[in-house]
Amino acid sequence: xxxxxxxxxxxxxxxxxxxxxxxxxxxxxxxxxxxxxxxxxxxxxxxxxxxxxxxxxxxxxxxxxxxxxxxxxxxxxxxxxxxxxxxxxxxxxxxxxxxxxxxxxxxxxxxxxxxxxxxxxxxxxxxxxxxxxxxxxxxxxxxxxxxxxxxxxxxxxxxxxxxxxxxxxxxxxxxxxxxxxxxxxxxxxxxxxxxxxxxxxxxxxxxxxxxxxxxxxxxxxxxxxxxxxxxxxxxxxxxxxxxxxxxxxxxxxxxxxxxxxxxxxxxxxxxxxxxxxxxxxxxxxxxxxxxxxxxxxxxxxxxxxxxxxxxxxxxxxxxxxxxxxxxxxxxxxxxxxxxxxxxxxxxxxxxxxxxxxxxxxxxxxxxxxxxxxxxxxxxxxxxxxxxxxxxxxxxxxxxxxxxxxxxxxxxxxxxxxxxxxxxxxxxxxxxxxxxxxxxxxxxxxxxxxxxxxxxxxxxxxxxxxxxxxxxxxxxxxxxxxxxxxxxxxxxxxxxxxxxxxxxxxxxxxxxxxxxxxxxxxxxxxxxxxxxxxxxxxxxxxxxxxxxxxxxxxxxxxxxxxxxxxxxxxxxxxxxxxxxxxxxxxxxxxxxxxxxxxxxxxxxxxxxxxxxxxxxxxxxxxxxxxxxxxxxxxxxxxxxxxxxxxx
Length: 646
Known about the structure:
The chain is built from 19 helices and 20 strands. It is of the alpha/beta class. It folds into five domains: 155 residues, Rossmann fold (3-Layer(aba) Sandwich); 151 residues, 3-Layer(aba) Sandwich (Rossmann fold); 32 residues; 64 residues; 175 residues, Histidine kinase-like ATPase, C-terminal domain (Heat Shock Protein 90). The chain starts with a helix and ends with a strand.
């Protein structure tokens, strides 16, 4: 262990001295910080009262340099010297004699910073000889050591150590404590701190016994700590040397004690946090260095050291190690208010705070977006229902209008069988009056009456279906039969207009999936439009024909007329709502027809014929195969070629 400590000492000392040599090199001539003139570089000598690799020295040195560089940048150069007073003071002043010649450098420091009490003692003895006109700033010197030291040209902010506050924190966290054991080494520095602790804890209240472990080797200290009772706590100061003269770094000894001890360890130095102490009312070496650097910077600005306003002395702060709290099962509720808890294991929230916030924000936005989509969907559904209702009303109104146009044809269709029924009834009465035995003729007459009655009933049923309000009902439909029924209904209307109405239907067409009433409405609309388009044509040339043909996936129907055709300006608005060339038209017929065909997943269009007139086409999809077979087996044969003579 001793060889390792010496090797580490040499290595770290070499690093620090190398840094000092680099910093004392030529300064840039075009960059000076602070308020110094261009090209001026201030020389700062940092005089350490202990070895540079000791953690408290490292923290102060780095803080001093950082504070000065923040103010002066490249306008300041540093040199370092160590007195190594932490391990023992030479009795004959030989160390002073070895140090003094090294300070006689060509570069006189603009300010000297004495770190720790040993460095301050050296400066007080040799200030007048080495740097009579150079201000001195001290750092890391206990407050109680400065009560009588008011030498001119020496300023600084003392360091306050709270041994009483540290022990009181230990008693607060461990209420059953009856023994406070101080552990210290044998060097002058170690013994100095042991004496401070014993003096301050001499009148500790509450019946707590104060003991000390000092004149032992480190191995003996480990055994002594392992044997402590559970009602004890340890106050660790420093161990630079043990009873055997072995040299150590106090943090190395502390880490060994932490492993051997089954009671918590406390201290007043913040450099021990994270290396085994539970906590304490600690003082910060880094803060001391930063304050010293700030004071030195004000002096370099030209302020009088004696009249400069110094920062207040920092107050030790309650600080604990969260890992040690957990190790000793001490609840956080016992901590004094405002106590700083370090080395806490970050919670899931702390580790992923922004991820959680972003995720929650995204989830909220997604919920809002989905809610808006849901509301939009409901609103759209309501609008679709309303539009469907309005479309149904328009379709029904259109059917009523078409039925009004077909009044004469409907009357003919009904009057014809009714007249036949009356004639047959008169004939039957005459036969019975003349020869009651001719029952065979009467039976034939009754059969004719039944047939004519059924025909009239079918016409009335058909009209009732057309006039009734109903929703779209997709069913297997024999399209040729539907075409024949519509054509038969319009024969009388065509005859009165002088139009030849016929069909050209391909047999064996597949059954389509459609609503019979709505398809009849489309056919009626196309046929009536075709008849209206031939109103100005000469008699004998007015023809209209309905054709059906098989197409891939279904059936195509064409209504061909010999009218005036479709004008170019009308063609672009053929299926627009409320666009009509008729004086009494509403412009809804073809629009409704397109809506019906599109609802059946079909297509409708119109185009002019080469020989004159126009043709309107629409397609319908075929029904499933099993439905086609069922309808085909039950349907009677359709008679094609129905025609009305002019």
